[in-house]
Amino acid sequence: DIEISTPMIALATGGKESSLKGKEAVREYWRKALDKFPDLHFDLIHSTAGVDSVALFYKSIMDKHTVEVMFFNEDGKISRMYAHYD
Fold this sequence. Notes:
Structural class: alpha+beta
Number of strands: 6
CATH topology: Nuclear Transport Factor 2, Chain: A
Strand order of the largest sheet: 2-1-6-5-4-3
Distance between the termini: 28 Å
């Protein structure tokens, strides 16, 4: 299953949580985020790959620079994601 951690969870949901676990929880987070920010988009600046992982550096909402690191499981699916904002 997937687990994500990002300070944007609290912003999108109005709660205090910064981590979510499970596809349904992540799906609901993205639904709320897209409802709150219908023009949500990301401008990729750079990407880099590591062992079973990838890191994306991009410009996000509110002109925030973001580094997002995703880790892949043995099936090649994202199992964890951590986002860091300036």
